[in-house]
Amino acid sequence: MLSKLAAAGDLSQLRSLDIGCVCEPGKLVNVADLLPNLKRLFLDIGRRWPSHPASETDIEESMAGILAFRPLEYLYVRGLRNVEALDRIIQRHGPSLKGLALLSNKAYQYYPRLNSSKLLEMMNLCPKLEELRLRMKRSAGNQAECEMYKALGTFPNLQRLFLDLDFDARPTVPRFGSIPETDDLDLRRTFINAAMDESLALQIWTKIKEKSPSLKDLRIFPCGNVYFPQEERYLLDCFARSYLLTGYNLENPGVPVMEQIGKREWEIIRARQNHWHESRDEEVRLSSKVVSVLRSIWPQVLGQTFRSDWLDCWTSLPLQPDTQSW
User: Fold this and answer.
1) pTM of the full predicted structure?
2) pLDDT of residue 149
3) Which segments in the chain show pLDDT lower than 50?
4) Which strand ranges, in their side-by-side order, compose the sheet holding 257-261?
């Protein structure tokens, strides 16, 4: 399509391009040649079509296309699967980038697995970065997780940070479309990772902000609720709250303004679910396995039905910077 447009007119001054799914990844290199002044690029390299995942060959061809563009200022990529691909991107575009977003496709849980060392490498290669969106794996707030937050604080010009925090503690990604039974220990760790309240959100903000005076906004979005049984999905939705923290606070300059995102929407959904359960002749009870796991984390939990107030009967576990294991 772009080739046809280029034949009809001059695209050399185009500054922003949103491709969506890269249906013909082999032609992306040619697109780069047509757009020498492009500054912003948005694309999904993880799918050939909306319901069709890209092959490794497709992704490699898309990567060649991304690397063919002149140094970009803003790059938003969905479907990047590994750290090696990320390394190639930031080697090419990192010095010029002001905005970088790495998103994963919801149905395909593959993404670059970052650690504090890799984030520090990114900081050195992306000195101008002002906006950043990453997906990171939670590990119950242990030392490794805390070190990642501290590393994020070292980006010298970072102002807006969006963290997709993956709470799924299962060691392997379930096969697409399957819903396997969750191991008790993995489920316990997943519940702990998913539970995000204001106290934990503030702790994460503080860890990052300690070394990042330029940070203005932090968005925390717990994610990973796919391929779990229905009752586990319901509880994970209850625990996984999203927050927006803003450093600009006239009333109390030392404390960020905090807003829970989507709170009203979830309250409406929950009210509808409870109304449906109350209309049934019998209570819909949680399984004994799930109740046992919940009580191992929050002993004060007594309710065993879906009508229990799972919005208020729990608290997040705090960050544990001195704990290496989990």
Assistant:
1) 0.91
2) 98
3) 8
4) 16-21, 40-44, 74-78, 99-103, 131-137, 160-166, 217-223, 242-246, 257-261
Exposure on the CB side of residue 98, measured as CA atoms within 13 A? 3
Q: Measured between alpha carbons, how far is 136 from 134 in angstroms, rounded to an integer?
A: 6
Strand pairing class (16-21; 40-44) = parallel
- The pLDDT value given to residue 172: 86
Cα dihedral 134, 115, 62, 2 in deg (nearest 10): 30
Any idea what the Cα angle at residue 114 is, between residues 112 and 118, rounded to 5°? Answer: 115
- Alpha carbon of residue 145 to chain centroid: 14
Domains of the chain, start order: 13-173+190-297 (3.80.10.10)
Residue type, 69: F
Dig out the tokens for 325 from the structure.
């294991």
Instruction: List, in order, residues 6 or more apart from 112 with CB less than 8 Å away.
Output: 80, 81, 82, 83, 85, 86, 102, 118, 135
Predicted confidence at residue 234, as pLDDT, reads 87
pLDDT, one tens digit per residue, over 18-42 is 988 888 888 899 889 899 999 999 9
d(CA 210, CA 280): 51
Report pLDDT for 8.
46
